[in-house]
Amino acid sequence: MDIRQIRYFLEVAREGSISHAAERLYITQPSLTRRMQNLESEVGRSLFIRGGRRLRLTETGELLKKRAEQITELFDKTEAELLVPAGEPSGDVFIGGGETRAMKLLTDVAAKLHADCPGIYFHIYSGDMSDISERLDKGLADFGLFIEPADLGKYEYLTLPFSDEWGIIMPSGHPLAAKESITPEDLAGVPLMRSRHSLDRSAISEWVASIPDPKPAATYNLLYNATLMAEAGIGCVLCINGIVNLTGSETLCFRPLSPAVRSGVSVAWKKDQVFSRAASLFLKYLKASIAEK
């Protein structure tokens, strides 16, 4: 199994058709069919469910598709790092992070580095903590931004001079909108939406556990979508302040928790990581920025 064969498989999986994939790959349909048959023989299992207008992936095919996407992404990342010319610093920096205002610190560092070295480009991936950890472990990200508490024992990391404030987003006409802050007692019987990754975070979980008569309404992984649910009247949203800009909003408002809950944020990378020149410079600039604060 080589990288070309993997790319061909991905194209077939995405198109759901040998003929359409062959057109996009500029090869003949019989040639691509043979390549897919050879791949199935090599794997020893069927990758496609044939029949109907579209090809569908078997369970093995779905697994291979997921791994193939990771393999091609890592291959492209490695190739780009190796092909960086000597001279002025250039290349790519890959950053993964959850939804947190601390990303502003990283983007400020990225902006300064890009101003000094225009040949350096940044790739930002947003996801929950398990997504970011997986990308770090597989070499698909150089750095990961983690909202604490997080299990960072297997990484090198820097704790940022920043913490996120937790609170509630609710419709502006909600009875609780008249309060300056929200207590656990205020949320008794109130439909509440939580991010999935907040379910196992000790500080916020302990606060939520003290709500009498809790009424879970939904979970989310992207706050913007959760605010649409709040506008629709599904419930209030437990979230971090500042991720969604509510300045001037006539439909939604944010109120902090009482007692207050804040979460620290850290930037992590693999131990003994061999950085590209671009990633090394980013870390250097980041450490300098933290030292100035």
From TrEMBL:
Gene Ontology cellular component list: cytosol
Recorded superkingdom: Bacteria
InterPro entries: HTH-type_LysR_regulators, LysR_HTH_N, LysR_subst-bd, WH-like_DNA-bd_sf, WH_DNA-bd_sf
Keywords: DNA-binding, Transcription, Transcription regulation
Example of a GO MF term: DNA-binding transcription factor activity
UniProt record similarity statement: Belongs to the LysR transcriptional regulatory family.
Annotated protein name in UniProt: LysR family transcriptional regulator
Organism classification: Bacteria, Bacillati, Bacillota, Clostridia, Candidatus Protoclostridium
